[in-house]
Amino acid sequence: MKTDIVIAGVGGQGILSIAVVIGTAAVNNNLNIKQAEVHGMSQRGGAVYSHVRVSDKPIASDLIPLCKADLVLSVEPLEGLRYLPYLSPNGRLITNIHPFVNMGNYPDSQVILAQLKSIKNCILIDAEELASTKASNMVMLGAAAPFINIEMQELEKAITSLFKAKGDEIVAMNIKAFQSGYNATCETAY
């Protein structure tokens, strides 16, 4: 079993939290994991991405080659298009439909959505409809969960571990958001 995931978005959208949840769940299940991330201008709304590789066998590199990702998980639609070159021919792109407009010349969102709809194995998620903006990253993780090769319950345990210091209410909000994303994907014909 091997899953290579590129997680993409904009600073402040919780990209690294998604990576931590996957990594924690992998370690808790005695899986091998390698992770690399770039978050240079993240505090100013810049691009953030993480490569996460999970396997039951040793992993040589933390970087995913172009055309080899099993999954591109994007919390922002333009970033989903940006990291599309990493997606394998049979891989899946899962992206939020709501843009994070962080630049004056942000492309028309309808044009972006039209491009996304033309991509094979693309699942579009309305994360803001399913949860508050603060938990939209967990909606997106839930939407990707069926393709990560880690049991849903294990990912939920990792979410609980990540947010437990913030209290039961925050844990419950994030678990609910995760489950909403999972259900949204399961309701589509993937």
* Overall pLDDT metric: 91
Query: Given the structure, what is the number of helices?
Result: 7
Order of helices and strands: EHEEEHEHEHHHH
CATH architecture: 3-Layer(aba) Sandwich
Helix content: 25-40%
- The CATH homologous superfamily corresponds to Pyruvate-ferredoxin oxidoreductase, PFOR, domain III
Overall 3D shape: globular
The biggest sheet, with number of strands, parallel, antiparallel or mixed sense and barrel status, is: 6 strands, mixed
Count of spatially separate domains: 1
Q: What's the CATH topology label? A: Pyruvate-ferredoxin Oxidoreductase, domain 3
In whole angstroms, the N-to-C terminal distance is 20 Å
Broad structural category? alpha/beta
**Low-pLDDT runs:** none
